[in-house]
């Protein structure tokens, strides 16, 4: 190596004086850069970085998934965000902690007109903001109109489009808010007029986008209203702190109408991105609850599901793949049905999805309220081959080059998509003799390509927004932005429309069933693969108030710790036979060195007392 | 004068960088609002784009961006819609800087002595041990080191917390995990520097004067031998201060590193551009400091 001459390379004006003996001029032993800069940076950083922050300990620490994109009920779209906003802002109804069916919240009662198009809500007299002002129907009307204001840019504004005039108001065809079917009758009664007799409107009232938000703060602070102080909330908790990627601290709202039921004074909600970090925090007793399927390390899933503190439940979501029906060969329903018949869901699940998922032959998951789905097409590769031959590709001969597209995912359960693609490729090669190429695409590009119908077959999933078949079946109507298959079927659209005009729930279910039959047995623009299984982990001896339900709905208000927070769990306990229940004979000790997702080598010690 | 001129160059340079970043994020396919679920009507999507002026022609967006930038406003984040990019930097940068400064001190504190001793005892066991240390730390990425450290210190011996950022004890493992790689690099640079310097004539002259070996090494050789380390410190410090994606993800540290990577994946245009600007500004400033340090350290370098 030459003498470092970087500085005079840079500057023609530098001058070299070849006087090495000048070196005994007094100098600092340590180079000045760190010795001058570092202390300064340190002092500044330590003061501002929160490394020494003293806060009271929380009663409950929950790992909730990634950093919330927003806590504004009108803007949130993800489950982790919604969990927090529901604790902060109540709607007219909320979902029951056990059944996830709507129960009274800010409205304590309501009347529904015989044609089920007009709802009259009565607000609680004792409902007040956390800052003390009463919550009136004016607040509700303002909150709903705010969600319908394009300037709010709410993703879920569409959930209000069932209200008369709402869509026209959003599109600025109606200027006068009085023409929208939301009317305050007095301070505590309001009337809502719907376009159609909606079986799930009370469910919708519990959705964050219809929650009641503080006009005072929003008008004053704009998009940054959530960081204003004091922030009036209408829910069971107040926002104590929201530090990005650090924590959301919720503090009990003593003025909440149902505050007697609130089990915790302080709840810390931690955003954690890495599944192994989440597991490590849980195992060392820092976190009490982890509830996000993507926060279960995929490599450990099959072992973890056997533990008594891991809880699986049927979840309102379906994994499926879409066909692009706008171009050959998938414009032919026979080809689509051939692929569906050749897809062996049981094999897929047995081999890959080991955490209790159920094979899906229809699109709407089992257990959806007031609905009984059709059977769909079961596995029959013989029939599949026959159909493909009918369509002009006997034994797959002459089948054009087609690709199966799926989004790239970093880790957790989402990584499964690639494995599923490989398995499907193999199945279709075996059963139909066709070779489908796989194409992994970066997430954002993938969704863009799907919307533009720039794919042949694409892996997809759908999570229901509310407990009703409509949240699934509405997807494949011609006008739906989430259709993304190019499939348009007038009979299907008509059946969905008719079903939603029904006031008789039985008749409605029947019409939905007919529609779904077109989707999963006749036309098959999509092929369902399996229904999601949700996951959370917590020790039921210490944490109570979490009830598993199809919507993964666990209101923070009711979750309680029954024993005082333990110190770091003692790993030796696990090996002490006395401390371990006999039926949990396996002392799980896992060292994972398979780190394709990269993060963490958790050593799990099964340490439940 | 020279330094003032270079400081003045900072502004046009940052302008060029921001223009490039502004253009590049928009050239990338996919947009901030491309998601698995589209809004119920195209009107809603239009309204969302309109709110953030993404429906305007690119030149209008650029002028708007420059106007805001002149006021020091990097705009609202398109992913974290309740925060502005300024808010996020203000919250996350101090954390990343604390961790980065700690790791920097760790890297220098370990790397310089190791390299120095290895060179001073060239060919002896200290040299081999030093080389082994340097090779190992440079070759094994943080992705592996951090989980190993957690496995041993946090899960097995239960000495330190596994993750989070709430007390000085929480900073120890991430500091080591982040600093180890750089300490190896510095050890190698330091050793090379020492070996080169010791062949120089002025060292022979110093020895000829009858100075003791310690004095020769510490007072005469060290000062020139540390120059490669100083050169490297600038970019290294910029790298460290702006956070590390891997380390912050593993230890769940609320720093900037995660935003660097995720903002591009999320097509969070404003955030990507803002962070690129921040990184560029830090890099330029720290390189300037490195050159200042040269003047202090190397008597042969002088700027007019």
Report on the structure:
The complex is a heterodimer of chains A (609) and B (304). Chain A is globular, with a radius of gyration of 29 Å. In chain A, a hairpin with a 6-residue loop joins strand 2 and strand 3. Chain A has a six-stranded mixed β-sheet with strand order 13-17-12-16-14-15, with helices on both faces. In chain A, strands 8-9-10-1-11 form a five-stranded mixed β-sheet, sandwiched between helices. A four-stranded antiparallel β-sheet of chain A has the order 4-5-7-6, with helices on one face. With 609 residues, chain A is an alpha+beta fold. Residues 1-33 and 566-609 of chain A have low confidence and may be disordered. Chain A has helices spanning 6-10, 32-49, 79-88, 137-147, 166-170, 201-205, 215-221, 275-283, 301-304, 333-341, 345-351, 381-390, 416-432, 443-451, 470-473, 490-501, 505-522; strands at residues 60-63, 93-95, 102-104, 107-112, 118-123, 182-186, 189-193, 237-243, 247-252, 266-270, 289-290, 310-323, 358-359, 402-407, 436-441, 457-463, 526-537, 543-544, 560-561, 589-591, 603-605. Chain B is mostly helical and 304 residues long. Helix content of chain B is 75%, strand content 0%. Chain B has helices spanning 2-27, 42-51, 58-70, 85-120, 125-139, 142-156, 168-198, 201-208, 213-225, 227-241, 245-251, 257-265, 269-297. In chain B, helix 1 (2-27) runs antiparallel to helix 13. The longest helix of chain B has 36 residues, at 85-120. Chain B is flat and about 85 Å long. Chains A and B meet through helix 1, helix 2, helix 8, helix 14 and strand 16 of A and helix 2, helix 4, helix 6, helix 7 and helix 8 of B.
């Amino acid at each position: 190596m030459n003498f470092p001459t970087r500085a005079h390379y840079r500057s023609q004006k530098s001058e070299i004086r070849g006087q090495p003996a000048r070196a005994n001029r007094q100098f600092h032993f340590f180079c000045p850069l760190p010795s001058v800069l570092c202390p300064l940076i340190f002092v500044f950083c330590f003061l501002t970085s929160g490394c020494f922050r003293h806060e009271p300990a929380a009663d409950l620490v929950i790992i909730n998934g990634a950093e919330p994109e927003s806590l504004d009920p009108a803007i949130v779209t993800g489950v982790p965000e919604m969990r927090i906003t529901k604790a902060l802002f109540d709607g007219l109804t909320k979902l029951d902690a056990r059944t996830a069916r709507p129960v009274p919240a800010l409205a304590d009662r309501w009347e529904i007109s015989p044609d089920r198009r007009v709802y009259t809500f009565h607000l609680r007299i004792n409902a007040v903001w956390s800052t003390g002002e009463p919550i009136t129907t004016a607040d509700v009307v303002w909150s709903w109109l705010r969600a319908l204001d394009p300037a709010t840019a709410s993703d879920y504004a569409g959930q209000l489009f069932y209200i008369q005039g709402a869509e026209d108001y959003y599109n600025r065809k109606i200027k006068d808010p009085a023409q929208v079917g939301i009317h305050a009758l007095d301070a505590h009664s309001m009337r809502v007029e719907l376009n159609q007799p909606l079986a799930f409107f009370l469910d919708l009232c519990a959705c964050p986008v219809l929650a009641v938000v503080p006009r005072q703060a929003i008008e004053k602070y704009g998009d940054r209203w959530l960081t204003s102080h004091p922030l009036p909330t209408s829910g069971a908790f107040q926002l104590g702190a929201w530090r990005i990627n650090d924590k959301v601290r919720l503090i009990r709202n003593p003025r909440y109408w149902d505050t007697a039921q609130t089990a915790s004074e302080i709840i810390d909600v931690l955003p954690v991105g890495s599944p192994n970090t989440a597991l490590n925090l849980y195992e060392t007793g820092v976190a009490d609850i982890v509830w996000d399927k993507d926060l279960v390390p995929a490599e450990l899933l099959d072992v973890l599901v056997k533990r008594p503190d891991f809880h699986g439940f049927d979840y309102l979501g379906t994994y499926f793949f879409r066909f692009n029906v706008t171009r050959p060969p998938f414009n032919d329903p026979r080809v689509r049905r051939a692929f569906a018949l050749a897809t062996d869901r049981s094999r897929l699940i047995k081999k890959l999805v080991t955490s209790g998922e159920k094979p899906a032959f229809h699109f709407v998951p089992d257990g959806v309220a007031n609905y009984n789905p059709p059977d769909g097409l079961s596995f029959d590769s013989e029939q599949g081959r026959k159909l493909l031959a009918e369509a002009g590709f006997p034994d797959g001969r002459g089948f054009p080059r087609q690709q199966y597209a799926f989004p790239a995912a970093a880790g957790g359960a989402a990584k499964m998509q690639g494995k599923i693609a490989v398995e499907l490729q193999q199945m279709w090669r075996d059963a139909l003799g066709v070779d489908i190429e796989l194409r992994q695409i970066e997430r954002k590009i993938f969704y863009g390509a799907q919307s533009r119908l720039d794919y042949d077959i694409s892996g997809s999933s759908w999570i229901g927004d509310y407990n009703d078949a409509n949240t699934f079946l509405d997807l494949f109507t011609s006008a739906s932005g989430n259709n993304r298959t190019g499939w348009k079927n007038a009979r299907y659209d008509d059946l969905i429309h008719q079903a939603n005009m029904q006031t008789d729930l039985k008749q409605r279910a029947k019409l939905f069933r007919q529609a779904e039959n077109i989707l999963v047995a006749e036309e098959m623009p999509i092929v369902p693969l399996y229904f999601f299984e949700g996951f959370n982990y917590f020790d039921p001896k210490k944490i109570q108030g979490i009830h598993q339900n199809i919507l993964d709905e666990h209101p923070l208000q009711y979750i309680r710790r029954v024993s005082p927070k333990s110190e770091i769990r003692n790993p030796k306990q696990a090996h002490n036979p006395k401390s371990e229940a006999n039926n949990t004979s396996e002392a799980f000790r896992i060292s994972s060195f398979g780190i394709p997702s990269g993060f963490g080598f958790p050593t799990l010690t099964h340490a439940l007392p | 004068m020279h330094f003032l001129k270079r400081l003045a160059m900072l502004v046009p340079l940052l302008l060029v960088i921001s223009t490039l970043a502004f253009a590049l994020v928009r050239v990338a396919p996919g947009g901030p609002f491309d998601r698995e679920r589209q809004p119920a009507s195209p009107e809603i999507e239009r309204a969302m784009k309109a709110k953030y002026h993404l429906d305007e022609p690119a030149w209008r967006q650029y002028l708007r961006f420059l106007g805001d930038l002149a006021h020091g406003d990097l705009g609202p984040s398109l992913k974290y819609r309740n925060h502005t990019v300024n808010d996020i930097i203000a919250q996350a940068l101090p954390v990343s800087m604390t961790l980065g400064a700690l790791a920097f001190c760790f890297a220098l504190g370990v790397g310089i002595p190791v390299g120095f001793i290895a060179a001073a005892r060239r060919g002896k066991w200290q040299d081999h041990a030093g080389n082994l240390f340097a090779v190992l730390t440079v070759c094994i990425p943080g992705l592996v080191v951090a989980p190993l450290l957690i496995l041993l210190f946090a899960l097995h011996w239960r000495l330190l917390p596994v993750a989070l950022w709430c007390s000085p004890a929480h900073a120890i493992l991430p500091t080591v995990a982040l600093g180890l790689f750089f300490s190896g690099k510095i050890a190698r640079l330091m050793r090379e520097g020492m070996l080169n310097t010791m062949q120089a004539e002025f060292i022979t002259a110093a020895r000829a004067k009858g100075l003791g070996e310690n004095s020769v090494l510490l007072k005469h050789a060290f000062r020139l031998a540390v120059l490669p380390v100083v050169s490297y410190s600038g970019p290294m410090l910029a790298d460290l201060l702006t956070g590390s994606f891997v380390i912050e993800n593993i230890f769940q540290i609320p720093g900037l590193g995660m935003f660097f990577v995720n903002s591009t994946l999320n097509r969070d245009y404003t955030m990507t551009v803002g962070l690129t600007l921040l990184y560029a500004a830090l890099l330029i400033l720290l390189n300037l400091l490195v050159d200042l340090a040269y003047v202090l350290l190397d008597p042969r370098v002088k700027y007019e």
